[in-house]
Amino acid sequence: MDKIKIITIFGTRPEAIKMAPLVKELDKRENIEVKVCVTAQHRQMLDQVLDLFNITPDFDLNIMKSKQTLTGITTKVLEGLEETFEIEKPDMVLVHGDTTTTFAGALAAFYKQIPIGHVEAGLRTFNKYFPFPEEMNRKLTGAMADLHFAPTISARDNLLREGINKENIYITGNTVIDAMEYTVEDNYEFDNEELNNLNYENKKIIMVTAHRRENWGKGIESICKALKNIVEQNEEVELVYLVHLNPIVKDVVYKYLDGVPRVHLLPPLDTKETHNLMNKCFMVMTDSGGLQEEAPHLGKPVLVLRDVTERPEAVAAKTVKLVGTDKDTIIKEANELIRDEEKYSKMSKAINPYGDGLASQKIVDIIFKYFNKTN
């Protein structure tokens, strides 16, 4: 039997985290030949994940440049993948989520009339500029995809409303839950000694990330002012802010929070360190999409520092709460969780809607079905 040749394409750390367990699952199957192509839209952070999961790319477009633009990323990915597809002639291309790599990867496959599988399909905010450019990246990718691997019922329903054939949509759960089976460990020792020295038993450690493009400027400023206030009002609280390397974010964060007692400003951690910090912390405050899925799996409440989210299932399940970027709202919602044990307990014990850790297996089984092959 001829093997099904699959090329997986990803370029950022969030994509890599969620695609890594799928790459591992594809590689287990005798009747699949899997090739990994990375664009390196984010070089350093991508490489951390590749090392963690022991994945060596077959193709590395290495496109990252200082001050890169969306146009530059898109054109470089298109040009690089045209050559890759000519060499490999894959039976299917798998892309993930909503990055510019995702959209450009799908477009490159479409131009070659190669079937496209879209992992984490169907997420929507219904506002093309929030988040930007992710909302349009995922919609446009969805318009080109042949198989849609929706993580939840809500994501499936979004696709159905857009006219996607129901026969091509599959609810699989989210592969990020699969990834956490590789990364979270009991009694984990951090590489970062500052994290090892935190008192997780007696202090309320709040993990923070905030870097999204739509929050640049006033949004990040407001978030930082709120965080400073929260620490000052609650002596039992310590903040660990994982500060994005982009100077547009980093400069603002350091302006407002550098030197504030009980605030730890650290560079982004690798995936394993991040997941284990999440596992040990009290709660999470973030504008990230992925953390809205990951933290609830570990029983950690999440305050989402955005006005809209493409993950309404988590809001409905009450594992996360949208608080936006208004300073007073952030302070109020954080203080409630810090001070009200009942509210904290309800959020921490809510059921995570993103699956059972078997999403990768389900996706590979669906691919076999698509090609009328047996595993």
From TrEMBL:
Residues of the UDP-N-acetylglucosamine 2-epimerase domain: 24-367
Q: Which residues form the signal peptide?
A: none
Origin superkingdom: Bacteria
List, alphabetically, the InterPro entries matched: UDP_GlcNAc_Epimerase_2_dom (IPR003331), WecB-like (IPR029767)
Keyword match Isomerase: yes
Keywords assigned: Isomerase
Q: What is its EC number?
A: 5.1.3.14
Q: Which Pfam families match?
A: Epimerase_2
User: What GO annotations for molecular function exist for this entry?
Assistant: UDP-N-acetylglucosamine 2-epimerase activity
UniProt-listed NCBIfam families: wecB
What family does this belong to? Belongs to the UDP-N-acetylglucosamine 2-epimerase family.
Put simply, this protein is called: UDP-N-acetylglucosamine 2-epimerase (non-hydrolyzing)
This protein's species is Clostridium pasteurianum BC1
Show the taxonomic lineage: Bacteria, Bacillati, Bacillota, Clostridia, Eubacteriales
